[in-house]
């Protein structure tokens, strides 16, 4: 028997065994295809919805009845404001009559006022081809013009109206920093959430796989013989790293499937469904790219995600070391998910208080630091030097947990016998 002299050989052996497994090939190659198709479908659904909401309605005829001192609406203002949606629209104050010609694209609008509240009621004639959704969209747009007309009819000057309805904007900045715009603020909210959710999903999907890989030989009678050729730390380290690499390969392929799906979906929608499609995925990509200063930050963020994932895999390895029967794998997995959920909640709830001292403490606690550090790096809450120091601390915690797993592993096998 060839001696297993280091963790590298354990790593290569375990990695090759997993790659050859049928389930691994199906999951690794099948899920990216599913994700690609899913995001194509999502893009197409959004594109169809946007096209429907921005449908051009030609030659509509509106029967407008104004009663009880309701304000008169300037028709030309509506036509100028929404000309791109309603070219050729015609307003008439004539009462609706079924015998009228060209009523297939007609609506009946009644405006009343009780002196306090102005009411707008829209009805669709039986012979009209206008759908309920189109009628609602028209009413929402007509309401804007009616409200503006009512304000102008009140006698308040245009300048006073602008002052009355102008909002109050507040902001702050640190001396020397550029002022945040709305896109940057949205990026600071969205991007850490994206990274955190990605890491959390990776842990949920792969934690049980890590536990199975670490515990599979432990429950067999060959374990005592294996430990005479390789020390427990090399065995645990090789198995954990093989699971990490397998999981990262899967995650990269899944991300590639999402990117391909977004690009293909954008092309299909713009080319065949709606040329003015507003692509939310492209905007998210722009926000991410706009928040990254240089390539070094990208490398550090990728390292942060990997180290964070290694930490949770080490926790999974420690839980697996206590397993004496394969029936207990699900119980060990619950322990990993509990630790992961605790870190997730700490990373999201406590930093909302904007207490920098408390945030620094959370970045030193491995459970919460795993979720906080990647997001903090991408939105520049911490510098690269701080990020490197926090990552080194997290790596030390991971190594310590892996060492603890090795000690428990050896004692359970050699002295307890299970």
Structural description of this entry:
The chain has 418 residues and is mainly α. It folds into two domains: 7-50 and 180-416, no CATH class; 61-129, no CATH class. Helices cover 66% and strands 6% of the residues. The protein contains 14 helices and four strands. It has helices spanning 7-20, 22-53, 75-81, 132-153, 158-165, 182-215, 223-226, 232-273, 280-291, 295-321, 329-349, 356-362, 366-378, 384-416, and strands spanning 61-66, 90-92, 106-113, 118-123. A four-stranded mixed beta sheet has the order 2-1-3-4, covered by helices on one side. Helix 2 packs parallel to helix 8, helix 6 packs parallel to helix 10 and helix 10 runs antiparallel to helix 13.
Brief descriptors of the model:
418 residues; mainly alpha; 2 domains; 4-stranded mixed beta sheet; 14 helices; 66% helix; 6% strand; elongated
Quickly describe the structure:
The protein is built from 14 helices and four strands. With 418 residues, the protein is mainly alpha-helical. It folds into two domains: 7-50 and 180-416, no CATH class; 61-129, no CATH class.
Number of domains: 2
The SS-based structural class is mainly alpha
Instruction: Give the overall average pLDDT.
Output: 79
Q: Sketch the major β-sheet.
A: 4 strands, mixed
How do the helices and strands follow one another from N- to C-terminus?
HHEHEEEHHHHHHHHHHH
Low-confidence stretches: 174-180
What percentage of the residues does DSSP assign to strands (E)? 5-15%
Count of strand segments: 4
- For the largest sheet, list the strands in their spatial order: 2-1-3-4
Helix content: 55-70%
Molecular shape: elongated
> Distance between termini?
24 Å
């Amino acid at each position: 028997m060839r001696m297993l002299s280091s963790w590298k050989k354990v790593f290569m052996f375990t990695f090759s065994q997993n790659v050859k497994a049928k389930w691994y090939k199906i999951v690794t190659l099948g899920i990216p295809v599913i994700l690609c198709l899913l995001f194509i479908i999502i893009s197409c659904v959004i594109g169809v919805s946007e096209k429907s909401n921005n449908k051009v309605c030609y030659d509509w005829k509106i029967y407008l009845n104004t009663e009880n001192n309701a304000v008169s609406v300037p028709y030309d203002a509506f036509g100028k404001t929404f000309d791109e949606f309603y070219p050729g629209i015609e307003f008439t104050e004539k009462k609706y009559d079924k015998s009228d010609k060209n009523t297939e694209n007609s609506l009946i609008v009644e405006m009343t006022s009780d002196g306090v509240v102005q009411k707008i009621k829209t009805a669709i004639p039986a012979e009209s081809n206008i759908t309920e959704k189109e009628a609602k969209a028209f009413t929402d747009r007509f309401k804007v013009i009616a409200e503006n007309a009512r304000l102008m009819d009140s006698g308040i000057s245009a300048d006073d109206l602008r002052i009355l309805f102008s909002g109050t904007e507040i902001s702050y900045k640190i001396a020397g920093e550029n002022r945040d715009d709305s896109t940057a603020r949205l990026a600071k909210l969205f991007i850490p959430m994206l990274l955190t959710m990605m890491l959390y999903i990776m842990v949920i999907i792969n934690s049980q796989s890590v536990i199975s890989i670490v515990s599979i030989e432990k429950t067999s009678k060959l374990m005592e013989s294996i430990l005479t050729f390789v020390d427990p730390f090399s065995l645990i380290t090789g198995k954990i790293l093989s699971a990490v690499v397998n999981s990262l390969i899967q995650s990269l392929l899944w991300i590639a499937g999402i990117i391909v799906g977004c690009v293909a979906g954008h092309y299909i929608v713009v080319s065949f469904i709606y040329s003015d499609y507003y692509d939310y995925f492209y905007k998210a990509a722009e926000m991410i790219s706009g928040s990254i200063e240089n390539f070094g930050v990208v490398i550090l963020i990728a390292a942060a995600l990997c180290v964070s994932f290694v930490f949770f895999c080490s926790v999974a390895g420690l839980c697996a070391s206590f397993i004496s029967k394969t029936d207990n794998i699900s119980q060990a997995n619950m322990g990993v998910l509990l630790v992961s959920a605790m870190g997730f909640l700490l990373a999201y709830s406590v930093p909302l208080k904007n207490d920098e001292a408390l945030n620094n403490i959370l970045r030193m606690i491995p459970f919460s630091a795993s979720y906080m550090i990647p997001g903090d790096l991408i939105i520049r809450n911490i510098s690269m030097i701080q990020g490197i120091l926090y990552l080194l601390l997290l790596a030390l915690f991971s190594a310590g947990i892996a060492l603890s797993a090795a000690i428990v592993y050896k004692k359970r096998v050699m002295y307890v016998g299970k």
